[in-house]
Amino acid sequence: MAITDTAGLETFYKEHRKSYMWEERTDAYIVQCTKGADLAGTRSAYKKIAKGKLDQEALNAKYCSSDTIPCITLTHLLVEKGENALIDAQKGVSGPGPVLEDVGSSTFVIVKGQRSPEPKKLDEARGQITSDYQEFLESEWLKSLKEKYPVSINQDLLKQIK
Questions:
Q1: What pLDDT was estimated at residue 92?
Q2: DSSP label at residue 121
Q3: pTM of the model
């Protein structure tokens, strides 16, 4: 019932949105460069990357030696502590992190900043909200049934059965 009652679900969410909160999160980019990339140039452009002025396409056009094969991958993440080891290693310090060399590629993190705790959007926590709404509906239904059909135990009859 909770799955099909979208209006009721939205109302329930609005009344209980403080129950569905993100913890403090780190806003960061992970930049991965293959051998054909200008790593130093990419790292020096970290402020433009953090401000969103350079996307993956623009980075590849500017800092990739091959104009046909992309050599830079840019991934934007908004993560809580413990979700990404590379970002956690930055310890919330803004700016570019150290370069990690791997076979054929180099990776570094750019921490844009910290986001304070905030309520999750309905779509971000829909499963949990739907489950909680279903439990709420069931408890309300049981309460109304108890009011409508009060239970009384015939003690004399119960003693005879024993």
A1: 83
A2: P
A3: 0.75
